[in-house]
Amino acid sequence: MLIAFSITPLGVGDSVGDLVAEAVRVVRESGLPNRTDAMFTTVEGEWDEVMAVVKRAVDAVAQQAPRVSVVLKADVRPGVTDALTGKVDRIEARLAEG
Question: For the structural domain made of 2-97, what CATH number should be given?
């Protein structure tokens, strides 16, 4: 499955970059395939392992913020692997066709 999520620390002022970086660090240290862009971090794996990573990322931010907002979107497709790059590769191939 793919989980795209965004964690926003609340009640810590205007600059939240350091806390968001902590959440991304948790994801990267998980060893699961992942990608971070300007809006979301996407992680690929089995349900329990991906959700555990999201929880650890939220917990890391919650240690330093009184409130945490989480937006999450999931693509649950049993038996599919390498969806993190495969989906993008298929779109790029279609674009290259014309």
Answer: 3.30.70.930
Segments of the chain with pLDDT less than 70: none
Residue 76 — left, alpha, or beta (φ > 0 → left; ψ -120 to 50 → alpha)?
A: beta
Q: Can you tell me the distance from the alpha carbon of 97 to that of 95, in angstroms, rounded to the nearest whole number? A: 5
H/E run at residue 36:
strand 34-36
For the chain, domain boundaries: 2-97
Please choose, from the candidates 15, 58, 53, 16, the residue with its C-alpha nearest in 3D space to the C-alpha of residue 33.
Answer: 53
Q: CA–CA separation, 77 vs 66, rounded Å?
A: 35
Kindly report the number of other CB atoms within 10 A of residue 33's CB atom: 15
Whole-number pLDDT of residue 79: 84
